[in-house]
Every structure is written in structure tokens, then in C-alpha cells.
Amino acid sequence: MAKGMYHYIKQAWKQPDKVTLRERMTEWRKGNAIVKVEKPLRLDRARALGYKAKKGFVVARVKLIRGGHKRSRPAKARKSGSKLTVRKDLQMNYREIAEQRAGRKFTNLQVLNSYNIGKDGKHFFFEVILVDPERPEIKNDDTINWIANGKN
Q1: Distances, alpha carbon 132 to alpha carbons 77, 129, 148, in Å
Q2: pTM (2 decimals)?
Q3: Residues 75-112 pLDDT 10s
């Protein structure tokens, strides 16, 4: 049975080239927290989640810091009993946080979906798919025009 291109892309991402991915993440670490990218890195995953290579679709790479979210200790001039650090457990997973941050950065776009593209010792990296609901290409597309509807 013949296999398509997306099958081989998916297989390649199951065991990625660690040297190439490490070099990419080194570059991503130096950049901003939210970066608009031209094309998705994982084309198979993006297409499965609704991405299309047409006007109105935007892909953003989001960098999040891993680890706990401790409250900082207060400064001087307080009782020592109130200087305890409180560990805050996350109520949302990192993917939801990445989607929210991308949605706040690109206010005219709607978040469609997101997926993980890597993690290192300090950061998680996600790609978030965003859609412009005002574009005529999106309004005329039967598979995605539900996002342009006001009640959605």
C-alpha cells in the first residue's frame, strides 16, 4: 500500500534529528516569546488540526518557561511568618497558556488550534494556528467559515 507524504513527515517527527532540533531551539531561545512564522514546522500536524496554506491563516511560535510558578518572597519590613513562599499549581496546561498568549498578541485573529514542537530544559515551544475571520478567503471556505460566524 502506497503511503503519502504526510505519513513520512509524521514518522520523521517520531524520532527527530536531535542535533538539528537542538540548533533550532537555541535560535528560538534567543528570539522573542511570540514569533510569527511563514510556514508551520510540522506540516502534517498543522494540516490535521485545520491549517490550510491560504491567506487568512497565520502560524505563531510561542515560547513558554517551564517549571513551577512560585510566588516571590516579599521584601523587608514584614513579619517573618508572612515571608513563606507559596507554590502555585497550574490550573491550565502549557498548551492553553500558549494559545491565550498568542490570542492576546494577535487581537484581530482567532485561535484555531496548537501543537507542541519541542522542549528543552527551560522552555516549551508551541506552534499556534490563528485564523483571520474577516478575510473573504475564510468566509467563502465551507470548512472554516464557522469561525467567521458571530456566535462562535
Answers
A1: 51, 10, 8
A2: 0.84
A3: 666 566 655 666 666 778 899 999 999 999 999 999 99
DSSP state of 113: E
CA distance 131 to 137: 11
Q: How far is CA 105 from CA 34, 36, 60, 102, 118, in A?
A: 8, 10, 10, 5, 21
User: In angstroms, what CA-CA distances link 112 with 11, 132, 133, 146?
Assistant: 24, 10, 11, 11
Element counts in the chain: helices (H) and strands (E)? 5, 6
Query: Which portions of the chain are predicted below pLDDT 50?
Result: none
Q: What does pLDDT average to over the chain? A: 87
Count, residues in the chain: 152
Looking at beta carbons, which pairs linking 100-107 to residues 24 or more positions away fall under 8 Å? 101/33, 101/34, 101/62, 101/64, 102/34, 102/60, 102/62, 102/128, 102/130, 103/130, 105/34, 105/60, 106/36, 106/58, 106/60, 106/130
Give me the pLDDT at residue 82, please: 59
What span, in angstroms and rounded, lies between the C-alpha atoms of 141 and 101? 27
